[in-house]
Design brief:
Elements (H helix, E strand, L loop, with lengths): L1 H11 L2 H11 L7 H11 L3 E7 L7 E10 L2 E9 L4 E8 L5 E8 L11 E7 L18 E8 L10 E7 L10 E2 L19 E9 L9 E8 L10 E8 L5 E3 L12 E10 L2 E9 L7 E8 L6 E2 L16 E10 L2 E9 L5 E7 L13
Antiparallel strand pairs: 1-20, 2-3, 3-4, 4-5, 6-7, 7-8, 8-9, 10-11, 11-12, 12-13, 14-15, 15-16, 16-17, 18-19, 19-20
Helix pairs in contact: 2-3
């Protein structure tokens, strides 16, 4: 009888509690398949609402959404490629579906800057709690971004490195952010690892409040190396740690997520109760068309169990027929919103959203 009561309680409790209790019972850093399935059912978004932000003309590409909340409004940082390089922009919304661009945060700069033609910014130190505030938190009274920077013209051309930008002003108001004079991570650093000695790409920075890593801040980023065969050229996700956001130390010798071919990249982190969830995209290593979004889970921010089931988002519509990738996922008022970069067969690139419930279809489409 006692066993039956316990079973009933587990069934009626929310899935998020089930995740917490099950993880607490597991001694291994590996997450069980049953817990991974609970997470999948919590975060899945089978309904594609459609495009919510597109370029103002067909010569540009919109990419890499990051969404935060301030007051009663939502804001999205995103990047634009115009043929020269990346700049970082800001948009706002009342409902997460209708977005209006308001201005720039990181722009092209003077010839002497190491990052003059590439500044692709991503929110650092957001409240990562699932269903939480999604506020952009501060460090030493500053809002911060990590960003992909470089001085070559073209699509992700030349030596790309990780920089840190910051502001003491309102991040919801467009203005030019300040930047550290030098990058904080480069593929040419002395301590570079075998899988990142060619190019570094997108990064995400969170606060490790429990110091599971022994440090206050953790950065996940994807990079490409040229040291090993036969998987030369693959992109993998690794990590670095810091206590001040300026001085970073690479953590471990190997990637934390690696599929040995194609791309594994653009990680960002949420915390579902006691479980850390890394959303990321894959490309060219699965029997799925184009690029697709997936997730992995961890109890310690170091050891990650990869989901083996269905993709969260993959190409299926005209507007994302080539790639459906680069995820940013939140849950608000019981609805999961999965923002992603959608690329069609004409290589037109915009921001789309999929949801956990059917919200109807977006009216925004690329020009035909």
């Amino acid at each position: 009888m006692q066993k039956l009561i316990v079973f009933i309680i587990i069934l009626v409790f929310p899935a998020i509690v089930f995740v917490s209790e099950t993880v607490a019972q597991e001694a291994s850093p590996m997450i069980s398949q049953s817990v991974m399935e609970v997470v999948y059912n919590e975060v899945k978004t089978p309904f594609k609402y459609g495009l919510v932000l597109v370029p103002d003309d067909e010569t540009k590409m919109v990419d890499s959404p990051s969404v935060f909340r301030k007051g009663e409004k939502w804001y999205m940082t995103y990047i634009v490629f115009d043929g020269t390089g990346y700049e970082t922009w800001l948009a706002e919304s009342d409902n997460l579906l209708n977005w209006k661009t308001t201005g720039k945060l990181l722009s092209f700069s003077k010839e002497s800057d190491w990052d003059r033609t590439q500044k692709a910014g991503y929110i650092a130190l957001q409240d990562v709690a699932w269903g939480g505030s999604y506020e952009w938190q501060t460090f030493q009274n500053k809002h911060c971004m990590s960003y992909l920077g470089g001085d070559s013209k073209g699509y992700e051309a030349g030596l790309l490195s990780v920089g840190i930008a910051y502001t003491e002003s309102d991040p919801a108001v467009p203005h030019e952010w300040q930047r550290l004079e030098k990058p904080v991570l480069k593929s040419t650093d002395n301590d570079v690892r075998w899988w990142e000695n060619k190019t570094i790409y997108k990064s995400t920075v969170i606060e490790d409040e429990e110091k599971l890593t022994g440090h206050r801040f953790v950065m996940y980023y994807n990079a490409k190396g040229d040291s090993l065969q036969p998987d030369k050229g693959a992109e993998r996700i690794g990590m670095a740690v810091s206590d001040d956001l300026i001085n970073w130390k690479r953590f471990g010798n190997d990637p934390v997520l690696n599929h040995h071919r194609g791309i594994t990249g653009d990680a960002f982190i949420r915390k579902i109760d006691s479980l850390w969830v890394m959303f990321y995209f894959g490309a060219f290593w699965q029997n799925t068309q184009g690029a697709f979004n997936r997730f992995a889970c961890s109890t310690d921010l170091v050891n990650w169990t990869d989901w083996k089931g269905e993709n969260l988002v993959q190409p299926s519509e005209d507007f994302d027929s080539q790639y459906a990738h680069k995820p940013y996922v939140i849950k608000w008022n019981g609805v999961v919103y999965h923002f992603y970069c959608a690329v069609d067969k004409k290589n037109q690139r915009g921001i789309a959203v999929a949801t956990s419930v059917d919200l109807g279809k977006s009216k925004i489409r690329f020009k035909q």
